[in-house]
Amino acid sequence: MRRPEVPTGATLLGEPLPVELMNTLRVDRSDVQDALSDDAPVTAWLRAIDDRLRSETGSQDPSDVAAAPEPGLAERLRRVRDALCRLAADATGDRWVRPEAAGFGTALREQWSAAQLPS
């Protein structure tokens, strides 16, 4: 039985799950949006990708992966996401955000707020 769609702040494009995880950090003209900012959005994101997560990992566990997220899960997912983003930036030579930055999301937010963009 399929669960109803759960709204999430992340854009889900059907990309491999590591790319979907990187896409939880989004930039618009005014700010950096983090779809993994705390437990509630993490729960929504996990529910949104639940079927794919089970399919791609081969999990047969019937429990809801997002029913009761472990304490600190949001922080751990952000760390994995930030590491993936740093690897992608390094591999592509992207210098907008320094790959060696300790927190990719924090570094992106700092650089974005310092940028002067036309309206």
Characterization of the model:
The structure is a single chain. With 119 residues, the chain is mainly alpha-helical. It has one domain (17-114). The protein has four helices and two strands. The protein has helices at residues 17-22, 39-57, 73-92, 104-114, and strands spanning 25-27, 32-34. A two-stranded antiparallel sheet has the order 1-2. The radius of gyration is 15 Å and the shape is globular. 24% of the residues are buried. Residues 1-6 have low confidence and may be disordered.
Summarize the structure.
By secondary structure, the chain is mainly alpha-helical. It has helices spanning 17-22, 39-57, 73-92, 104-114; strands at residues 25-27, 32-34. The chain has one domain.
Mean of the pLDDT scores?
Answer: 75
Largest sheet: 2 strands, antiparallel
Number of domains: 1
Q: How much strand?
A: 5-15%
Give the helix/strand class: mainly alpha
Instruction: Give me the number of helical elements.
Output: 4
Order of strands across the widest beta sheet?
1-2
Low-confidence stretches: 1-6
What would you call the quaternary organization? single chain
InterPro entries: ABATE, ABATE_dom_sf
Protein name: ABATE domain-containing protein
